[in-house]
Amino acid sequence: MDFWDFFWLMVYSFFFLAYLMVLFQVIADLFRDKELSGWWKALWMVFLIFLPVLTAFVYLIARGRGMARRQSELVVQARSETENYIREVATTAPADQIASAKALLDAGTVTPGEYERLKAKALA
How many of the other CB atoms lie within 10 Å of CB of 56? Predict the structure, then answer.
């Protein structure tokens, strides 16, 4: 295998992986879209099976703007859920953490050693 064979192998591999990424994004967007009926989703999938490259490009051209909107909504939702979780965890007072650890100790869920570790972690 000489340099040019290796070079073209890398070029083909790049384009194949890029195509797979686009294909999986299109499929994920198809099933994420709540406005599209099941019949249209099935039709898009049939075309993706029989004419994959052409259908992927047509999908990106025809539905690309909606695809970007749905992706941004998903990112905003994930960010909101993450921020809510952080806020919930950060606002728990050490006394509440110790009380919940004590309840776990009283219920027999944790050992006294684990209780001491939880208490030390809450006070840290």
Answer: 19
Question: From CA 117, how far away is CA 49, in angstroms rounded?
Answer: 56
- 82-96: per-residue pLDDT in tens? 999 888 777 777 778
Tell me how far the alpha carbon of residue 66 is from its chain's centroid. Answer: 18
Q: pTM of the prediction?
A: 0.64
Amino acid identity for residue 96 in this structure: D
* Size of the chain, expressed as the number of residues it contains: 124
Residue with tokens 């039709």, as numbered in its chain: 43
Q: Are 56 and 22 in contact (CB under 8 A)?
A: yes
- Cα–Cα distance for residue pair 100/115, rounded to 1 Å: 10
Select from 100, 108, 24, 106 the least CA-distant residue to 67: 24
